Amino acid sequence: MTTLVTSGKTKELYTTENDDVLRAHYTDHTTAGDGLRNELIDNKGAVNNQISSLIFGYLNQNGVATHFIEQVSETDQLNKKVEMIPLEVVVRNFAAGHFQKRFGTDYLQTLKQPVVEFFYKDNDLHDPIVTKSDAVGLDLLSAEKLEQLEAAGLKVNQVLTDLFNKMNVTLVDFKLEFGINADGEIILADEISPDSCRLLDKDTNESLDKDVFRKQTGDMMPGYLEILHRLQKAI
Ligand SMILES: Nc1ncnc2c1ncn2[C@@H]1O[C@H](COP(=O)(O)OP(=O)(O)OP(=O)(O)O)[C@@H](O)[C@H]1O
Ligand SMILES: [Mg+2]
């Protein structure tokens, strides 16, 4: 018997025969504007499952502890069950999105050093940005664990920037989610895919990510497939 444990805008998580393991099913749902736009894009779930599996497998092998166990079908993968931390960790190398808007920068302005931001995962509040001091004051997480999240975010940035450079892709920014495993350790969870990263072809600066859907500039799937194919070659 397998039962649905939780579902979000893009994934469904099911029980398995092992209490510590969940099966993540990647759907074709694609959202933008705080979930206001929600469309089914054919094959997106399968492509993102494959991309996320390759990236998490690579991170596991390169010194980053993650929830990823193995890919089990086109659309599904096994993950270690964790208690999710209600924070999104965003790492930025160039200005885009909320950051560009907030500070009135140019698109892709180079940042002097990678920026790490925390957002409080609360749909009713529309995921507001939180400082480390806010997060400690609100008793969301200890100062020590926040430092660990920041360090893990920067480590993932280093490993993935090098990987994407090899693929002739610029890693502009990305969002991570972490959880606490049965041993009380912080591990990387959720997904890493073109839904959660800004990825540009280095030659053309063309977006190979969800910005194509957000900005409604065309079909986003060719970019997603391009990322998958370049990853398959690079890893
Ligand atoms: N290893 C894991 N163990 C338990 N829950 C997980 C794990 N990895 C991801 N999740 C959770 O699975 C849920 C479904 O993911 P999905 O990406 O669809 O959510 P979402 O729409 O982004 O919504 P949310 O705001 O809850 O993150 C999320 O709540 C996510 O935090
Ligand atoms: Mg999500």
TrEMBL record:
Family matches, as PROSITE patterns: SAICAR_SYNTHETASE_2
Top-level enzyme category: ligase
Keyword annotations of the record: ATP-binding, Ligase, Nucleotide-binding, Purine biosynthesis
Recorded catalytic activity of this chain's protein: 5-amino-1-(5-phospho-D-ribosyl)imidazole-4-carboxylate + L-aspartate + ATP = (2S)-2-[5-amino-1-(5-phospho-beta-D-ribosyl)imidazole-4-carboxamido]succinate + ADP + phosphate + 2 H(+)
Pathway as given in its UniProt record: Purine metabolism; IMP biosynthesis via de novo pathway; 5-amino-1-(5-phospho-D-ribosyl)imidazole-4-carboxamide from 5-amino-1-(5-phospho-D-ribosyl)imidazole-4-carboxylate: step 1/2
Keyword Ligase: yes
Nucleotide-binding keyword on record: yes
Record-annotated SAICAR synthetase/ADE2 N-terminal domain positions: 5-230
InterPro entries with a match to the protein in the record: SAICAR_synt/ADE2_N (IPR028923), SAICAR_synt_PurC (IPR033934), SAICAR_synth (IPR001636), SAICAR_synthetase (IPR050089), SAICAR_synthetase_CS (IPR018236)
SUPFAM superfamilies per the UniProt record, alphabetical: SAICAR synthase-like (SSF56104)
EC number: 6.3.2.6
Pfam families: SAICAR_synt
Protein family: Belongs to the SAICAR synthetase family.
Entries under NCBIfam families matching the protein: purC
Record protein name field: Phosphoribosylaminoimidazole-succinocarboxamide synthase
Record organism: Apilactobacillus apinorum
Gene encoding the protein: purC
